[in-house]
Design goal:
Length: 179
C-alpha cells in the first residue's frame, strides 16, 4: 500500500495531536452535557475511536452509513442513508463526526434530517476540511486540519475500500485512481 502513496501529509503522531486538540475543544464546549456523537461510516470510525479515547466526559456513540460517492473519487451529490441511527436525536446535542468535509452535500443533508428529528443542537467535528471543494454552505465547528485539494487516503479514508488501514494520511498517486 505504501508504494501507492505519493506523499504522507499527516503522520500518526500528527493525527494524535489533532485528536488531542479537538477533544480539548469538545470537553470545553460539552462539559456536563452528554452529547450524542454520530460517526459517519466507514471513513470516520478510526478518527472517532481515537477522538473519544481523549475525552473524559460522558458521551453516547451511534453510527450512520451515508454514501454520496459510490466507488468513485467525486461526490455524486446524491446522498443515500445506508444505515440509520439506533438512537433518537430528539432533544439531544448531536456532534456529527466526519473524516473529511469536501463538497458539504452529505452534511447539509444530515443537518436537515436531524433538524426535522428535533435535535437540540447539531455541530460538526471533522478531522479534515477541504474548503476548496465546497459546493454547499456548511459550518464545520471543529476541524483537525485544512487539507489541499488532493486525493487523500489512510486513517479511515479510502479509495475503492482500500487504504483505510494506513496509520497516516497520504496523497494517493493519480495513476492509481485514473486507471
Amino acid at each position: 500500500m505504501d508504494n501507492d502513496i505519493l506523499k504522507v501529509l499527516y503522520s500518526k503522531e500528527q493525527l494524535h495531536e489533532f485528536n488531542v486538540k479537538l477533544a480539548a475543544e469538545l470537553k470545553r464546549d460539552y462539559a456536563g452535557k452528554y452529547p450524542l456523537m454520530v460517526c459517519i461510516l466507514k471513513g470516520a470510525v478510526l478518527f472517532m475511536t481515537d477522538l473519544v479515547r481523549e475525552l473524559d466526559e460522558y458521551v453516547e456513540l451511534d453510527f450512520m452509513d451515508v454514501s454520496s460517492y459510490g466507488g468513485g473519487t467525486e461526490s455524486s451529490g446524491d446522498v443515500k442513508i445506508l444505515k440509520d441511527l439506533d438512537t433518537s436525536v430528539k432533544g439531544r446535542d448531536v456532534i456529527i463526526v466526519e473524516d473529511i468535509v469536501d463538497t458539504g452535500a452529505t452534511l447539509v443533508a444530515l443537518m436537515k434530517l436531524f433538524e426535522t428529528r428535533q435535535a437540540n443542537s447539531v455541530k460538526v467535528c471533522s478531522l479534515l476540511d477541504k474548503p476548496s471543494r465546497r459546493e454547499e454552505e456548511v459550518q464545520v465547528d471543529y476541524v483537525g486540519v485544512t487539507v489541499p485539494n488532493e486525493f487523500v487516503v489512510g486513517y479511515g479514508l479510502d479509495y475503492a475500500e482500500k487504504y483505510r488501514n494506513l496509520p497516516y494520511i497520504g496523497v494517493l498517486k493519480p495513476e492509481i485512481y485514473s486507471k
